[in-house]
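Let's practice the habit of predicting before peeking. Look at the sequence and jot down your guess about where helices and strands might fall. Then scroll down.
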Amino acid sequence: MNKLVCGALSAFFLITASVFGQELEGTFRNSTGYILLEGGKITFDIDEAGSPMNNKAGSGSYRQVGDFFVVKTESYTGKRSEAIPTPAAKKDTIVIQVVNSHNAPIQGVLVETLSESGKKLLGGVTNGNGRILFLHNPKIAKIRVFDMGADNLAFAYRPRNDFRVILAGKTVVENRTAVFKISPIDEESISFLFLSSDFDAGKDEQKALDKLLKQAQKRNFLEKRLKKEYSSDY
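Done guessing? Here is the structure:
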C-alpha cells in the first residue's frame, strides 16, 4: 500500500515539475475563453469568478506566488468597445445605435445621457434595431452605455452627431493588478480560477491572496479546466 501511495505521489510531483518546473507556456482554452502564457507575459480573455456574464480581457507581466499568478496588466491594445460619431440625421435629435463586434444590433442595452458633472439627464433601452433616440439637449455632455455588465462605455457627446456604438462584449482590465490561481492537472490541462481583476495586496500580499482564495471557496466558485491548444502543422 505504501508503495502505491509513494508511486502516486511521485507521479503527481513529476507532472507538477513538468508543467511548472519549465516555465508554463502556450495557449490554454475552454469553451468560453483562453489564457496565453509566453515569455513571462500573459494575455487573457476569460470570465472572472462571480462574473460569468462577460469576459475580462487584458495582458501584462506576471510573477508566481505558489499557485497564484499575480499579473501587472498594461495598457490594452486589443479590440475594445468604441463609439463612432456620424453626421446627425436631424438637428433636434440624437440617434444612438448599438451593435456587437459582428455588426448585429443589440436590443435592450441601457443608454443614458449625462451632464458635465455626470448627473443623469435621460435614459432608456435600445429597440430591436439596436437604436434609441433622444431629443437634443444643450446640457448633454456625455453618453453612457451599459450591456448587462459586459460593457460600461462612456464617451463625450459631440453636437450635431449621431453615434454608432460597437460593443466588444468584454471588460478591459488595464493598469491594474489581476490574480489567477493556476494548478496543474496533467501535462495538457490546468485548473484555472480568476480571483480578482483589481487586486490590492496591502501590507501583506500572501495574506491578501489567501483571503481571496478563501472568499472564492466560501462562495463555491468552481475552478475551470483549460486544455493546452496545439497548432496544426497541416
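How did you do? The radius of gyration is 23 Å.
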